[in-house]
Design brief:
- The chain has one domain: Sortase, Chain: A (Beta Barrel).
- The protein is elongated, with a radius of gyration of 25 Å.
- It is α+β, with helices and mostly antiparallel strands.
- The N and C termini lie far apart (109 Å).
- Strands 1-2-3-4-7-8-6-5 form an eight-stranded mixed barrel.
- It has two helices and eight strands.
- β5 and β6 form a beta hairpin.
Length: 262
């Protein structure tokens, strides 16, 4: 009696086309997993790292100022309130434009020498959207913006001085300090602190979209060269916040302007 054993021997090879398709599917899944991990690193991990480092830099600045004053302790670091929008992440998009008691503009502010390049020297607070972020000199992406800081445009005024104190910041990833500046409205306050001296600005105007080459928005008297109906016509002490728009892109620029409260 013969016993027939089934299933023995070598497995049959997949047909040529089916094997190619199977291999392509495996490669696609592998590439997809790698890309997903890279995206998670870019939009979540780097965001957490930059935000934590930026908050620590704020604390360090406040400790230094408190030590220099030798009196009152540093102000408590603000954190986003429960009503603040949740922080979501996205590909980086914040290239700069190409190229308490309020203080009035002072001669000392106007004469002060600019800080060392790419060093943090001030703190910007935007209570409405829960932002507390270091201000650094320069708008270099790697050295300043990617560290979760906002950057001071070289050649623009210093805080509290006549002219335009202009800042750039990321809207997405790397701490995304300017993620929600589109929610600012006229009358909202922005404060800038440098060595214990605090300057309070009041939001006046918002330009929802303009070209990245619209250098008029950071001029001493800020006025859009692309949309001239937006801006100011008289000298004063201004603050300008710039970031990219729409979100997830760097195609246009979003601009918020404020004036120093006297």
């Amino acid at each position: 009696m013969r016993v027939v054993v089934q299933g023995g021997g070598r497995r049959r090879r997949r047909p040529g086309l089916a094997g190619v398709l199977w291999g392509a599917a495996e490669l696609t899944v592998t590439v997809g997993v790698v890309v997903l991990l890279l995206v998670v690193h870019q939009v979540w991990w780097t965001n957490r790292q930059a935000l934590a480092a930026a908050h620590e830099q704020v604390r360090e600045l406040e400790r230094d100022w408190a030590g220099s004053a030798g009196s009152s302790p540093a102000p408590e670091l603000l954190t986003p309130s429960s009503s603040s929008p949740p922080s979501s992440s996205s590909p980086s998009s914040s290239h700069p434009v190409s190229s308490s008691s309020s203080a009035s503009p002072s001669a000392s502010a106007e004469r002060s020498a600019p800080p060392a390049r790419e060093s943090a020297y001030g703190v910007l607070r935007i209570p409405r959207i829960g932002v507390v972020v270091p201000i650094a000199q320069g708008v270099d992406k790697r050295a300043v913006l990617d560290r979760g800081y906002v950057g001071h445009y070289p050649g623009t005024a210093q805080p509290g001085a006549e002219g335009n104190f202009a800042l750039a910041g990321h809207r997405n990833t790397h701490g995304e300090p300017f993620r929600y500046i589109n929610r600012l409205r006229a009358g909202d306050e922005l404060t800038v602190e440098v060595r214990g001296q605090r300057y309070t600005y009041e939001v006046g105007k918002v330009l929802a979209e303009t070209s990245e080459r619209d250098t008029g928005v950071i001029a001493p008297v800020p006025r859009s060269t692309v949309r001239p109906e937006y801006g100011y016509g008289e000298p004063g002490a201004y603050i300008t916040l710039t970031t990219c728009t729409p979100e997830y892109t760097s195609r246009y620029r979003l601009v918020v302007w404020g004036t120093l409260k006297r």
